[in-house]
Amino acid sequence: MAISVDSLRNAIHLKAEINASKLGVSEAEVCFLGRSNVGKSSVINLLCSKRDMARASQIPGKTRTINVYEAVPGRWLIDLPGYGFAMGGRKAKDQLGGIIEGYLKDRTTLAMVYVLVDAFVGPTTLDRKMIDWLAYYDFPFSIVVNKIDKIAQPKLDARKNEIVQALKVGERAIFWVSTTKKLGVLDLQHSVVEHLS
Ligand SMILES: Nc1nc2c(ncn2[C@@H]2O[C@H](COP(=O)(O)OP(=O)(O)OP(=O)(O)O)[C@@H](O)[C@H]2O)c(=O)[nH]1
Ligand SMILES: [Mg+2]
């Protein structure tokens, strides 16, 4: 079925899984990846104009499973658990890493990986590792810098430059977003729809 920016509003929570191989088949999907608490679930809600379809929380580690949101039949937005945090220590942390890697390696219809980076924190060592890993395995990925509302307007351009330098992702698309201020949503919606088409 054809997808448009408008159809993102009709998204529903389809399923939650730990094992990517149990997700079933999609026509096309995009996923949201990033450190815990960076705003993956919030970005999915913003894209789909929902208040709390994807469960967001101030407590890091909220999303512990692979969550599938379906915009139109077979076209999916995937909310992944965050990396870099796990209640329950090292073992749980490794499990989350395993869920993410299992997902990325399994999905043949994965059209775009959106890597979220916190505008205030900047790219962390783990973000860098994730980006290098995606580039090495030739995944299609873009960067979403979220929480730009945390940077005062006069400093925003300088901060953006710093982040671009630190990311070292060349000509790749970078989206500048704030879910709380609803900034940058249109560009990201268009990108998502393009990759789900
Ligand atoms: N200031 C600000 N806060 C935000 C923004 N986006 C998300 N947050 C807050 O950041 C916190 C984490 O958001 P989530 O969407 O749950 O983050 P997540 O990446 O899904 O987290 P996990 O599921 O734990 O991996 C929440 O308290 C959000 O309200 C933003 O653009 N600006
Ligand atoms: Mg989440």
Question: What would you note in describing this structure?
Answer:
With 197 residues, the protein is α/β, with parallel strands linked by helices. Helix content is 33%, strand content 22%. It is built from five helices and seven strands; from the N terminus they run ββαββαβαβαβα. It has a seven-stranded mixed beta sheet with strand order 1-3-4-2-5-6-7, with helices on both faces. A hairpin with a 2-residue loop joins strand 3 (66-72) and strand 4 (75-79). The longest helix has 18 residues, at 89-106. The chain binds guanosine-5'-triphosphate and magnesium ion (MG). Residues 34, 36-42, 56-58, 60-63, 81-82, 146-147, 149-150, 178-180 line the site of guanosine-5'-triphosphate.
Topology:
Blueprint: E1 12-17, E2 28-34, H1 40-47, E3 66-72, E4 75-79, H2 89-106, E5 110-118, H3 125-136, E6 141-146, H4 153-167, E7 174-176, H5 185-196
Parallel strand pairs: 2-4, 2-5, 5-6, 6-7
Antiparallel strand pairs: 1-3, 3-4
The chain binds guanosine-5'-triphosphate and magnesium ion.
Guanosine-5'-triphosphate (GTP) binds next to helix 1.
How is this structure best summarized?
Helices cover 33% and strands 22% of the residues. With 197 residues, it is of the alpha/beta class. It has one domain: Rossmann fold.
